[in-house]
Amino acid sequence: MKISSEFSKYAMHYGSYNVIQQKVADKLLSLITSQPKNILDLGCGSGTLARKINWQYDKLMAVDFAPGMLELHPKSQKIECIYGNFNDVNLFEMLREYNFDYIFSASALQWADDMEKTFQQLQAFHTPVALAVFTANTFKTLHVTAGLEPLLIDTCKLESLQRKYFNARFEVVRYKLDFDNVRDMFRYIKKSGVSASRNVLSYKEMKKLMQEYPLSYLEFEVAFIY
Questions:
Q1: What angle do CA 152, 158, 163 make, to 5 degrees?
Q2: Which of 20, 26, 68, 156 has the fewest CB atoms within 10 Å of its CB?
Q3: What confidence tens digit (pLDDT) does each residue in 17-72 have?
Q4: How far apart are CA 51 and CA 89, in angstroms?
Q5: Phi and psi at residue 19, in whole multiples of 5°?
Q6: Per-residue pLDDT for 12 more than 50?
Q7: How far apart are CA 202 and CA 214, in angstroms?
Q8: What are 184-188's contacts with CB under 8 Å, separation 24+?
Q9: CA neighbours within 13 Å on the CB side: how many for 50?
Q10: What is the rounded distance in angstroms from the CA atom of residue 100 to the CA atom of residue 123?
Q11: What DSSP assignment string belongs to 82-149?
């Protein structure tokens, strides 16, 4: 398992709450050496990956379970946006009717209800993958300070599943996102989507956490499988 780190100074401003997801998409695309023609983007969101692909392709199928995100996704004759949830086996049964050269997923699969079942479904395509998954070490100090259990999958468990289902490389990248003040930091958590909008603390507990959080930055850990 390869581990690297990246530090990012981030000045908060409207419309830039997905700064880490942007970096993850850039990293994911940099890891592949081919230029696939028929692409599946699983958990595509508003189209970060589609906007960053810089080669000519024949077809990109973009799948997401949020209609509002799909509305924002780039549209063209080569791009097909499909409403679907990767926790639904029926989605994979439908997708296997298509031929894909490559399967991408950037910053989405951490919300799989059952990561092993999802990997099983992906393996059944017999197609190269490039996946980026946020791990339990994302917001690590925040969780420790608040006394919360991580929401996301443990890195070692994820690597074990990757070895079981894919003949692929596994690389972990740690990001730090610096903030000018704690209020901006917690606004980012709410708006970015990294926490999946899960409100696990009361107002009183959140206020206490904001007072006690010891860092000027948030920690992220992303596993890349490719």
A1: 170
A2: 68
A3: 788 999 999 999 999 999 999 999 999 999 999 999 999 999 999 999 999 999 99
A4: 28
A5: -60, -40
A6: no
A7: 20
A8: 184/12, 185/213, 185/217, 185/218, 186/210, 187/12, 188/12, 188/17, 188/218
A9: 27
A10: 13
A11: EE--TT-HHHHHHHTTS--SEEEEES-GGG-S-HHHHHHHHHTT---EEEEEE-TTTTHHHHHHHT--
What domains can you pick out in the chain, each with its CATH number?
2-138+151-174+221-225 (3.40.50.150)
User: Do the beta carbons of residue 133 and residue 109 sit within 8 Å?
Assistant: yes
Pairwise CA distance, residues 142 & 158, whole Å: 21
Residue 3 bridge partners (DSSP): 172
- The answer to whether residue 221 scores a pLDDT higher than 90 is yes
The structure's pTM equals 0.91
Q: In angstroms, rounded to a whole number, what is the distance separating the alpha carbons of residues 23 and 177?
A: 11
CA distance 200 to 99: 41
Given the structure tokens 């010891």, which residue do they identify?
214
Rounded-to-integer distance, Cα 184 and Cα 191, Å: 10
Cα–Cα distance between 2 and 120 in angstroms, integer?
24
Q: What angle separates helix 182-192 from helix 19-30, to the nearest 10 degrees?
A: 60
What's residue 226's pLDDT? Answer: 97
Q: How many residues does the chain have?
A: 226
